[in-house]
Amino acid sequence: DKENLIWVDPSKQEVWEYNINLAVEAAGHGFDEIQFDYVRFPDRKGLKFAVQNSEENRVKHISGFLAEAKKRLAPYNVFLAADIFGYVSWNLCDTQIGQKLDSIEPHVDYISLMLYPSGFQFGIPGYRNPVAHPYEIVSLTLKKAQERTGISPVRFRPWLQAFRDYAFDRRHFTGAEIKTQIKASD
């Protein structure tokens, strides 16, 4: 990907099986929730996958994986969650990674939007410098996600930034910024 990290191909059934089998094993050991992190395609252009790299295929395989995980985990009565990029709330496309709220929401109990202001490279409408506006980034993105899905706000469990900004001015996110994001989430 853009950070020279190695990824598995999320369109391959072997990848699905491996991850779902791990989830089933964890559920069998008594874990009451499975949260899939980085349930997406890498965001680097030009990569080749087992299927054509199109929005339709990316969305189909990410939502298909979550649907299959939900089905296989049903006997264990566990909650299912997925970490989703914050921009997915704003973008109508799949953000080049296969994540669309309306395709993911039916398959999970909780959506964990990653609302790190540093991750909003282009800002959101009215807030070009997101690290200077953590309250607005978190609050408005959660409102946008709820509007787009129509689901209860309790199904959103946001990830908040508690680490140094890596994209804008390198500011530290300390108690004040964290408290502001918590207030926005509430």
What does this structure look like?
The protein has about 190 residues and is mostly helical. The N and C termini lie far apart (about 35 Å). The model has no long low-confidence stretch (mean pLDDT about 95). It contains five helices and three strands. Strands 1-2-3 form a three-stranded parallel sheet. Helix 2 links the parallel strand 1 (about 35) and strand 2 (about 80-85). The radius of gyration is 17 Å and the shape is globular. Helix 1 packs parallel to helix 2 and helix 4 (about 135-150) runs parallel beside helix 5 (about 175-185). Helix content is about 35%, strand content about 10%. The chain has helices spanning about 15-30, 55-75, 100-105, 135-150, 175-185; strands spanning about 35, 80-85, 110-115.
The general outline is globular
Unreliable residue stretches? none
The major sheet is characterized as: 3 strands, parallel
Order of helix and strand elements from N to C terminus: HEHEHEHH
State the distance separating the first and last CA atoms: 34 Å
Helix-and-strand structural type: mainly alpha
Spatial extent as radius of gyration? 17 Å
Q: How many beta strands in the DSSP annotation?
A: 3
Order of the strands making up the biggest sheet? 1-2-3
- Portion in beta strands: 5-15%
What are the key terms here?
about 190 residues; 3 strands; globular
